[in-house]
Amino acid sequence: MKKNKFFILMFTLILIASTIGCTSNKFRQPIGTETKIGDNITKKGVKRDNVNTKGIVKKDINKDVRQNQVLPGPNTATDITKRNNLSTPDDMAKKAANIAEKITNLKEINSASVLISGNSCIVGVDIKNNIEGKMTTDLKQKIERIVRNTDNSIKYVSITADPDLYTRIRNMAADIANGRPISGFANEFEEILRRITPVK
């Protein structure tokens, strides 16, 4: 009887010890939120309001960390967001307006709207005397040449004459020109790219 109690007690202690040893540390901070203030901290009671920070060197431990650790590709929302940070939204809007103006000068085009995100460009056009919204290969090549000659950093050009897509592109371009960031349209930008066959 005593032998059984001893084994039950030992089994219980081993079970408790293994349970405690295998639990996660709830107080550990997630990666990327840790703050390293400096190497020469002298226990001055540093607070977030930067009081008592004399002699403490700030270090940015996250300077080489990229968000979303995804390799860039031409049609991904994360890529669109990352690549858009290379220029200011105002620069992108000006480039897009410049390209749209040059495309509108083509004799076959009534109007054009352009969206640029990094090295991807979406062009929506309203073609003269074209009820179906169809576009010839020759016209697509002309538009692609205009885009690439105007901004040689653009590698991916997608062109559409579909009236619904043109309206969406025009509305997005107007919102971006009024200060709304392209990152707010990342999902819609990606969806439009999927619906258009890209010109390579």
From TrEMBL:
Coiled coil: none annotated. It comes from the Bacteria. Residues 1-23 form the signal peptide. GO terms for biological process: sporulation resulting in formation of a cellular spore. Keywords: Lipoprotein, Signal. This is YhcN/YlaJ family sporulation lipoprotein.
